[in-house]
Amino acid sequence: MKTKKSLTWVASLSFVAAPAWAAQPVPASASANMAHTGTQAEAGQLPAARQAPTATPTTTTAPGMKLAAKAMPRATTPAAENFALPQLLELAQSTNKGAEAAQANVDAATAAISSARAYPNPQVEVMYGRLSGKQPGVTSGNAPSYAVVQKFDYPNQRNLRQQMAGRGLEASEAQRQTFRAELAARVKTAYFQVLRRETELAAAREDLNLMRQIQERAKVRVGVGEAPRYELIKADTELLAAQKTLQTAELRVDQSKASLRQQVGGAMPMRFGLTGSLANTPDVPNLAVLRDGMQASNAELNQRRSELERARLGVDYQRSLRWPEVSLRASTDRQPDNNVSQIGLVMTIPLWDRRSGPVGEATAQATQARTALEAREFELAQELDTAYQQYEITQAQVTALESGIVREAESALGVAEAAYRFGERGILDYLDAQRVLRNARSELINAQYELQIAAIQIEKLMSATPGAAAVVPSRPVSQNLN
Fold first, then answer.
1. Are strands 130-131 and 141-142 parallel, antiparallel or unpaired?
2. Burial degree of 56 (CB within 10 A; 0-12, 13-18, 19+)
3. What pLDDT digit, counting tens, does each position of 124-145 carry?
4. Crossing angle, helix 229-264 and helix 30-43, to 10 degrees?
5. What is the pLDDT of residue 96?
6. At what angle do helices 229-264 and 63-71 cross, to 10 degrees?
């Protein structure tokens, strides 16, 4: 009996304190401080002003008191910098280490072009010897020898090397674009995940405020004898559940922000806010336009096409190496009595090695590159169809929830509230109506998030420019959370 009285006293005290902060606008950085506040409450480090409800030593602490203390925000919140999605994308592309590695790969491919253009270096031979005469009249002395060998480079082979290096550079640039598109998709996903969790946190705060009002009404009705005591017990239980839901929502906001900071990089501050809305419907063209655009702009397909062209050039290059290698050789021998100078050609005759092995290997690599390109084209086409179908499904869900289900649930809650106020219905009907609204609102938030994810997947398949905004709002959509 003492525990129930203490629980009622705690819920009443929480209801009295609720209007002081529930009516205030929620700052963007408030959710980032909630988990830290809860940690202080568990460690007993709350300021004296926030420990006032538990200061009476003769009152037994109810299970919901710690939850209520965690749910209350701090008196002062440090200012946090707000980021828009284009800012996050630009910051990620400039600070992410993977982007630097992709750029280094492009630099290496650029250097490979310079290597392909280079001419063969000459070879210089210096031999030292001594001439010893065995016959009369032959002068003995030093007999050094000098030679220079310059290898000739066939124009066809040189052009093939340059073309192969050029295709390698195109493949590296396409690989960098693929990484940039994937990084942008991860940042956008984490960004909308934060917006989703913050929207859920705002909904949890509204639910907690409403449950405090319900608990206060139940306490008054039970006190005057208009309702049985189980209504107050049920209201206290629902209040504790709402407080627990609020704590969970605060923790999820912190986790989603940590994930976003991990994707963007260490340049982001520890505390930050986001500007944007989860309820803006992305503008996506029809499926036929998307298919044509993906074939032309998908960076991964462009990379594989460049690799296929490079492999085909590699086959031609290996075949060109069957030609004899020709070098110009000039030499001079200095003897004690005379000097001997020579000039001629050095030719490597492909008699035993016709390079059948390297040619066959290059041919197999070209076949492998072709089949990989065809398989990836089919896979990406299926991924695009799946993403577009998911986009249409979630768009229909959002429209149905916004235009009908959520509004009907709000109306049903208003009717149940009026009936409960005038004593025509019990508290169970009121709580059921609130639960239906809560579920419908949660489904709306999830559908809006899934709609953004489907649009992000389509943009990723298009290899959209990472510096652009994630979605182009075509029409504003209200979240219907009030």
1. antiparallel
2. exposed
3. 999 988 877 777 777 778 889 9
4. 120
5. 81
6. 40
User: What is residue 73's DSSP assignment?
Assistant: P
- What is the predicted pLDDT for the residue at 63? 36
What token pair was written down for 176? 């960098």
Chain centre to alpha carbon of residue 311: 32
Q: Per residue in 159-174, is it b (16+ CB within 10 Å) or e — as a string?
A: ebbbbbbbbbbbbbbb
160-165 contacts, C-beta under 8 A, 24 or more apart:
160/313, 160/316, 160/317, 160/320, 161/116, 161/317, 162/113, 162/116, 162/117, 163/313, 164/116, 164/310, 164/313, 164/314, 164/317, 165/109, 165/112, 165/113, 165/115, 165/116
Stated as kind and residue range, the H or E segment containing 102 is: helix 97-117
Half-sphere exposure of 456 (CA within 13 A, CB side): 21
| Beta-bridge partner residues of 387 | none
The alpha carbon of 290 is separated from its chain's Cα centroid by a whole number of angstroms, namely 22
Residue 322 per-residue DSSP state: T
pLDDT tens by residue, 179-197: 999 999 999 999 999 999 9
What is d(CA 225, CA 345) in angstroms, rounded to the nearest whole number?
118
> In the Cβ-directed half-sphere of 315, how many Cα atoms lie within 13 Å?
15
Report pLDDT for 376.
Answer: 93
pLDDT of residue 233: 87
Please measure the distance between the N-terminal and C-terminal CA atoms of the chain and give it in whole angstroms: 37
Distance separating alpha carbons of residues 363 and 30, to the nearest angstrom: 62
Nearest to 243 by CA among 3, 471, 18: 18
What lies within 8 Å, CB to CB, of 273 at 6+ separation is: 27, 28, 29, 32, 80, 81, 82, 83
333 CA to centre of own chain: 70
CA dist 85 → 56, 189, 460 (Å): 48, 11, 16
Token representation of residue 324: 């004899």
CB atoms within 10 A of CB 212: 24
Q: Is the dihedral of CA 423, 424, 428, 433 positive or negative?
A: negative
CA distance 410 to 179: 45
The CA–CA distances, whole Å, from 396 to 286, 291, 442, 480 equal 15, 22, 16, 16
Give the chain's residues under pLDDT 70.
Answer: 1-79, 423, 465-482
pTM above 0.85, yes or no: no
Check residue 225 and give left, alpha or beta (phi > 0: left; psi -120 to 50: alpha): left
Judge contact between 103 and 116, C-beta under 8 A.
no
